[in-house]
Specification:
alpha/beta, six-stranded mixed beta sheet, 10 strands, about 210 residues
Length: about 210
């Protein structure tokens, strides 16, 4: 996507959603998520982040929203970014570069079935100020888990930043922690397949991310 099509310093919600649709990252239909919920839309930010210019543009746009917080802006040289999973690393590195922040950490599942953790010797230090960064905030499961990991290490979570906020009925509210995002998606969610309005020929696509 040419830079001439990306004119806004902080892209509007409409422009962000247009970029996601054009890259195939945002899709409409009938989808079943791993937690059993059904939805009329599916979002996979990684499809948009494949394009370096788009990834940079979105990262810079999100970083400008973060910079509006004067308390965070005053500590950028000491601020570190934590991704709740390796899938969020493209966003995390994009934000660190745009903010000129301190470090990047990430949580991962070293053994299948075990809770995520930091790699040995690569973890936040006590008192370190942390910005949690991911591509999407949907159920909040990963963000909540890594928030606890960070706080257990004695570090302080000062904000959460995601490309898209896509809340479900289960998404928690993080009291006292500012949330930054470029776009918000309000999809329709159903707990029972009987609630899904299927037309002849419609299919339900199982998604695992």
């Amino acid at each position: 996507m040419q830079s001439a099509l990306l004119p806004e310093l902080i892209p509007s919600q409409e422009l962000v959603l247009d970029i996601l649709r054009r890259t195939g990252a945002l899709r409409y239909g009938h989808f079943r998520y791993p937690n059993g919920l059904y939805s009329d839309l599916y979002l996979q930010i990684a499809l948009a982040m494949r394009d370096y210019q788009i990834a940079k543009y979105l990262s810079v746009g999100l970083s400008r929203k973060i910079r509006e917080n004067k308390e965070i802006r005053a500590t950028l040289s000491q601020l570190s970014v934590v991704s709740p999973a390796t899938g969020g690393l493209p966003v995390a590195y994009g934000i660190v570069e745009a903010l000129r922040a301190h470090r990047v950490y990430w949580a991962e599942e070293d053994i299948e079935g075990r809770p995520q953790n930091f790699r040995q010797f690569i973890e936040p230090e006590p008192g370190e100020k942390i910005l949690l960064v991911d591509d999407i905030l949907r159920t909040g499961t990963k963000i909540s888990a890594v928030k606890k990991l960070v706080e257990d290490k004695g570090a302080q979570v000062v904000g959460i930043a995601v490309m898209v906020y896509q809340p479900t009925p289960y998404t928690p509210v993080y009291e006292g922690i500012p949330l930054y995002y470029l776009a918000k998606l309000d999809g329709m969610y159903y707990r029972d397949i009987q609630e899904v309005q299927l037309k002849p020929g419609d299919q339900i696509v199982d998604v695992w991310v």
